[in-house]
Specification:
The protein is built from four helices and no strands. The chain is mainly alpha-helical. The chain has a domain of about 40 residues.
């Protein structure tokens, strides 16, 4: 350690900085003072200019990085929005198809016959069929009677009650 001409203030500072008695004694016995050592520091303007240059470079680099991250995030968000839009379109088309099927089902329910209606119509048809069958039997009996009268006329050659 080089020792400079000491004043009372610097000696007190050295003593207070020493933590042990041995260190204090070594600092007191230091010899060979050469003089003041001058440390050259850069001029204040260059330090400030260097600071601003470094700050601006770091700021520009961080802004570029943030813009790239923002661009990627925006692209991902846009892709997810488009995917969501396609999914929403599919859901809405399915919903429309379900609504049309429900409308058709309601129309079929209204137009369809109920079991009671079918049995009622069946009974009416049986009555109509039985009535036609009776008329057919009456017609056959009448035709048979006409045939009998015709055969009688042909055999006897006389016209009866006609």
């Amino acid at each position: 350690m080089l020792r400079t001409p000491t004043s009372a203030l610097t000696r007190a500072a050295i003593r207070t900085l020493s933590t042990s008695a041995v260190a204090r004694q070594e600092s007191a016995e230091a010899v060979g003072t050469v003089g003041n050592v001058v440390v050259k520091r850069p001029v204040g303007g260059f330090r400030i200019l260097g600071f601003f240059f470094g700050f601006s470079f770091a700021s520009a680099l961080s802004i570029y990085y943030l813009q790239q991250e923002n661009k990627i995030a925006s692209g991902l968000l846009l892709a997810s929005v488009e995917e969501l839009q396609q999914g929403t379109g599919k859901v809405s088309s399915h919903l429309e198809r379900l609504q049309t099927v429900e409308k058709e089902l309601a129309a079929l329910k209204n137009a369809g016959a109920v079991k009671d209606d079918v049995t009622k119509v069946r009974g009416e048809m049986k009555k109509v069929y039985d009535g036609l069958h009776l008329e057919l039997l009456d017609l056959r009996a009448h035709v048979w009677g006409v045939e009998q009268d015709l055969q009688k006329v042909v055999k006897t050659g006389e016209l009866g009650d006609f």
